[in-house]
Design a protein that fits this description.
3 helices, about 140 residues, mainly alpha
């Protein structure tokens, strides 16, 4: 009788009579020897998407108009806030400081909210998604 040809670690064919050590074609024996904590990798079921970091997948493209609007809102809020401080310090009766301060906060709040959400979504922070922001790219 001929002994079967088996491939060893060097990928060179050798003759051996001990085929059971390789578990070729014996799925049940390999399943019993496998530890329950060992995970077998699953094949990818969908095509890869854009990645922002190793191991993190971005589901949506970053909306550029929303980023621009957030930056402009923050800048306008800072300018209005500094003008309100200037009006408070320079004018003896503090004329115009309170309306500018209210307007500054009304402009700063959505700008900071959008900026934090954009940064959190891009950096992959848990709970931050670009879907939470209104998209101005559709306009």
């Amino acid at each position: 009788l001929e002994s079967p040809i088996v491939v060893n670690q060097m990928h060179e064919p050798t003759e051996s009579t001990d085929v059971s050590a390789l578990n070729i074609g014996d799925e049940e024996q390999g399943a019993e020897e496998r530890s329950p904590n060992v995970r077998t990798p699953k094949p990818p079921t969908e095509k890869p998407r854009r990645r922002n970091k190793p191991g993190r997948i971005m589901k949506k493209k970053v909306p550029m108009k929303t980023c621009l609007a957030a930056i402009l809102l923050v800048l306008a809020g800072v300018v209005l806030f500094s003008l309100s401080i200037d009006f408070y310090v320079q004018h003896p009766d503090h004329a115009g400081a309170l309306p500018l301060l209210i307007l500054a906060f009304l402009v700063l709040l959505p700008g900071i909210y959008a900026s934090v959400n954009i940064v959190g979504a891009i950096r992959g922070w848990r709970g931050f998604r670009l879907d939470n922001l209104p998209s101005y790219d559709d306009l």
